[in-house]
């Protein structure tokens, strides 16, 4: 799951609160920096990490799922 401000990742890797991440959209090659803001372990097999983009990224997904109010002022 992802939106203009962040999202949720399911990983087999342990995460740390505040950990920086670099996400890459494999379809577009677009890179976006973010940080882990929440960590859950709903299963012994994986972690669920909530992340927040360093700045809003409404066009990070390949499809245009952004709302008009997701645009970054001056972009």
Count of DSSP H/I helices: 0
What string gives the helices and strands in order? EEEE
Structural class: mainly beta
Please compute the radius of gyration using only Cα atoms: 13 Å
What strand line-up does the widest sheet have?
A: 1-4-3-2
The coarse overall form would be: globular
- Roughly what fraction of the amino acids lie in strands? 35-45%
Give the end-to-end Cα distance, rounded to a whole number of Å.
Answer: 24 Å
Percent of residues in helices comes to under 10%
What is the strand tally?
4
| Biggest pleated sheet | 4 strands, antiparallel
Q: Give the rounded overall mean pLDDT.
A: 84
**Which runs of at least 5 residues are low in confidence (pLDDT < 50)?**
none
3D architecture notes:
A four-stranded antiparallel beta sheet has the order 1-4-3-2, with no helix packed on it. The two termini are 24 Å apart. The mean pLDDT is 84. 0% of the residues lie in helices and 43% in strands. By secondary structure, the protein is mostly beta strands.
Quick gist of this model?
The protein is an all-beta fold and 75 residues long. The protein has no helices and four strands. Strands 1-4-3-2 form a four-stranded antiparallel beta sheet, with no helix packed on it.
């Amino acid at each position: 799951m992802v939106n203009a401000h962040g999202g949720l990742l399911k990983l087999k890797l342990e995460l740390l609160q505040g950990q920086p991440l670099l996400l890459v959209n494999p379809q577009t090659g677009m890179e976006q920096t973010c940080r882990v803001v929440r960590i859950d372990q709903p299963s012994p097999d994986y972690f669920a990490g909530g992340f927040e983009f360093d700045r809003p990224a409404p066009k990070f997904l390949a499809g245009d799922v952004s709302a008009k109010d997701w645009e970054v002022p001056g972009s």
